[in-house]
Write the structure tokens for this entry.
Amino acid sequence: MSKTIDLRSDTVTRPTPGMLEAMMRASVGDDVFHEDETIKALEAECASLFGMEGGLFCPSGTMCNQIAIKAHTRPMDEVICDHLSHIYYYETGGYAFNSGCSIKLIQGDRGRVTAEQVKASIQPDNDWLPISRLVVLENTCNKGGGTCYDYDEIERIGDVCHEYGLALHLDGARIFNALVATDTSAKVLHGKFDSISVCLSKGLGSPIGSVLLGDTSFIKYARKIRKAFGGGMRQVGYLGAAGLYALEHHVDRLKDDHNKARRIQSMLAEQDYIDSVSPVSTNIVLADVTTAYSVQSVLNHWKDKGLLAVPFGPQTIRLVTHLDVAEDDMFLLEEIFNSTHK
Ligand SMILES: *Cc1c(COP(=O)(O)O)cnc(C)c1O
């Protein structure tokens, strides 16, 4: 058995032949000089999809989030987010390093916070406390297991932010997973956020790229920060073409990923070495192994059989479905799960 099924992340996909062809055909120019028509088209398309005035293509979702934090805050400000947030966990403490901010963590429900929790996290105005300035939501929430926000809750959180003069940013690395899973148009988010970050290189299958969205003056300032962060790019339309292709061809098919994730959930739930599997709403499966097993022993066994997944806590394993998981792989997966033993 030489085939490897790689469920470590939805970032491991390779461009499809159709995507590569679109990239080859891209018309490009120097984007630092505002001369790349393909990247401009991608930025405009994302902006209009999410009801924003402008967009900014960045090499990574992390850079989008970090630019957003930098643009919305000043040093000594505080960022409010759930304790499972990507901006807290997986961005090397960039909020402090890049922006000189502190962070206020909320114990939400699998990565989702409520308007009441946000309100309770706002610092009173006095000399010895940081200034609450920015709220960051993550939809879907990676570390929460691909959980989706309730859109009414987002609205209520927006009201709190408005009342207290806080900016609201959406880390939408997997926003298309959330929209597809809830069968909702991106219109539901129009007017709800000051900025949104959208990844093209996760479930959408582009090799590189994320887009930061906001109003015209925000994007103008964000562009300056991107340059300072070393993210000004030249003939980047080759990557823009991949993004445009992904938006056209790879959004609706996210349903397949969600369906496969649910099938993996039920396969795993039957295994005696699995204690519990979190409810699956999108393409992420979190499974807890029983205390009789270690995460590493299960992962090693799977790896020997040709399945890759990642540790995600002391007893937790994460598996993520994506574009490169074939229907045939599902049978192989079941065999591997069933053959796992001490
Ligand atoms: C992947 C991810 C990002 C961005 O990651 P990059 O690897 O920097 O592109 C941001 N937020 C969430 C929730 C993510 O899952």
